[in-house]
Specification:
Belongs to the ABC transporter superfamily. Keywords: Amino-acid transport, ATP-binding, Nucleotide-binding, Transport. One of its GO terms (molecular function) is ATP binding. The chain is of the alpha/beta class. The protein has a single domain, classed as Rossmann fold, CATH 3.40.50. Helix content is about 35%, strand content about 25%. The protein contains nine helices and ten strands. The strands form two sheets. Strands 6-7-8-3-9-10 form a six-stranded mixed beta sheet, with helices on both faces. A hairpin with a 2-residue loop joins strand 4 and strand 5. Helix 3 packs parallel to helix 6. The longest helix has 18 residues.
């Protein structure tokens, strides 16, 4: 087991958002988290990287209790977080955005690994271009590549297909599968597109009102579950 959340509760101020969440993800898994808007999916990812503090429960990563660990130590232990909206630095070049990812990892190097351009060949053509001038799909690929720069054991991706045209969504799906297969990196993806989840993930978790209400291997993600918990 690479990541475990045991009875994790998280609040924003006085308002509870997660209520005793339990979740376990094996090393090498691709897991997707689904749920309607506002059920706590993003908060769950942010609690794993440390942006939201757990007020009770434990988060275990790679056999270490990281519940009280600072964000930078979680990153150096092998957790990469790719937030919703990508949050690249628009006035920095693609190259400098990538180098920011290096600072999060253990390795002290300023060199971009060649494999980054194998996974994302588009980036090599735009190294000197400002990040803000890239298309939405290109920015998403840059954000994933920046997360990969820290040589993580797990990548947490928050809605990586949001607002992206279908052809680029397919590219992102294929690339995430390659990263998982070739690098052995575990992926946890918050996602709204059920078809994307069914094609990408090996297991799923469905959240409602701050708790996990259903989980299983992806073939068990039935239309009945989708209608019950995800239909608007």
């Amino acid at each position: 087991m690479l990541l475990e959340l045991n009875d994790v509760t998280v609040s924003y101020g006085q308002t509870p958002v997660l209520f005793g969440v339990n979740m376990a993800v094996d090393r090498g898994d691709i897991a997707c988290i689904l749920g309607r808007n506002g059920v706590g999916k993003t908060t769950l990812l942010r609690s794993v990287i440390g942006l939201n503090k757990a007020i009770s429960g434990n988060i275990i990563f790679d056999l270490q209790n990281i519940t009280r660990l600072p964000i930078f130590k979680r990153a150096r232990s092998g957790i990469a977080y790719i937030p919703q909206g990508r949050e690249i630095i628009p006035y920095l070049s693609v190259l400098d955005n990538l180098k920011l990812g290096l600072s999060a990892g253990k390795k002290k190097s300023s060199k971009i690994p060649h494999e980054i351009f194998e996974f994302f060949p588009m980036l090599k053509q735009h190294l000197n271009r400002q990040g803000g001038l890239l298309s939405g799909g290109q920015q998403q690929q840059l954000a994933i590549a920046r997360g990969l720069m820290s040589d993580p054991k797990i990548m947490l991706l928050d809605e990586p297909t949001e607002g992206i045209q279908p052809s680029i969504v397919q590219e992102i799906e294929d690339t995430l599968k390659r990263i998982n297969r070739e690098k052995g990196i575990t992926l946890i993806v918050v996602e709204q597109k059920v078809d994307f989840v069914r094609q990408l993930a090996q297991k799923f978790f469905i959240m409602e009102k701050g708790v996990v209400v259903a989980e299983g291997a992806t073939p068990a993600l039935t239309d009945d579950l989708v209608h019950k918990y995800l239909a608007v």
